[in-house]
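Retro notes, structure queue

What went well: the backlog is down to a handful. What didn't: a couple of records were mislabeled last round, so from now on we paste the full input next to the output in the thread. Example, using Aminoglycoside phosphotransferase domain-containing protein from Monilinia fructicola:
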Amino acid sequence: MAGSVRQPIDLQALEKYIEKHVPEIKIPIGIKQFGFGQSNPTYQLLAANGQKYVMRKKPPGKLVSKTAHQVEREYRVIHALEKTDVPVPKAYCLCEDEEVIGTPFYIMEFLDGRIIEDPGMPGVSAKERRAMWHDAIRTLAKLHRVNISEAGLTSFGKSAGFYDRQIKTFGTISEAQASTVDIETKEPVGQIPHIEEILRFFRDRKFQPKDRAALVHGDYKIDNLVFHKTEPRVIGILDWEMSTIGHPLSDIINILSPYSVQHEKKFESLPQFQEDHLPGLPSQSDLISWYRETAGWDPEPDLPWGMAFGFFRNTCIYQGIAARWAVRQASSAKAEVHAKARWPMGDLCWKFVGLAKERKGAEVKAKL
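Corresponding output:
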């Protein structure tokens, strides 16, 4: 839901740019700011003719991470996917000139549908809940089947070594974030517990999954999807700043995350994912089966390793929110709450590292 603007922008300069470069958007415009979007401030634009649009921009000030907040990549991939069967909003323009409103931004179509923050999907029937989850998984599989060359995205990322790069990237990002000092308390954000042992495990090739390459979203989850107002289908995927060419397992792990924390007391906010708790909610096995049917490969054997890395990645993301909160750059009203979740998430990462080691050991013994 869009509300009051927490991070003001130069509306006159924005209108001048729109009038020159996107004349189909009629000025003057009204502006509100969405509550979601931890990384890049997101605004709703109301044109003079009543049409709504969405603007995403980089946050102001010195950025903690140079690899985050990449609105340019968001624009590029959304624009490229308009030619495919993957549902995305129409992209209207990308402005990389910081002189306009202070940081780069892009404007896209406003999708008039349902954004559901709770993956348990309260307020819908059991039949619709199951159908909506089914289409979310089918949409993900369609994304992973996109022909990267035909979409014009061959330079969007490297075709091999995704997890090797991810391990290095998030290790570097985490180190930078850990040293960020709160401007009021003067306390550093702090290191992720067991960080050295965790990184050593992920770098060990005998545990890593077989390398694959696909167009991946990078943060694929229910609240980054827009569903049709009355039908159980996805009409748009949002928040593409972490998209790249990578291992499709990474997206699968992200959408499965509510299932992987269902028995953890630290995450009792997801009781609906307890077995048989919510009618119509598919099982994790259902989701894997639906994905396999459309994507054409089975990710199940790699789930423990992927879960461990997924929790490491999410720990780094929450640590990043904590770092932005420390210097008061966080754009979401929930930033402080999310920042406090970084260490419980780190504990889950450490737990799944152990589970992945156990499974690999069992597989080796079975072959003897």
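Agreed that this is the format going forward. Reviewer comment attached to the example: The first helix runs from residue 11 to 21.
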